[in-house]
Amino acid sequence: MVQLYRDTPEVALVGFAKVALKPGEAKRVRIPLTRRRFMRWSDSGWTDIAPQVQLRVARDAEDSGVALTVKVAELPQTGL
Description:
mainly beta, 4-stranded antiparallel beta sheet, 6 strands
């Protein structure tokens, strides 16, 4: 399983995908994301956590994984 975490404002699993691989095999995995996973509730309603959010592709929440950055405004509002 491939998991995708954001670390701010707290560690949260934002997506995952199951994939079966044979030894030495590699596959491209797509994890759909929506903007709502990068928002929080405030007095003025739902607001983005930040313009950009750093994510980790990891095996679990403790794994340092591989870092990537997502521009929150470019994510779709709704979806999976």
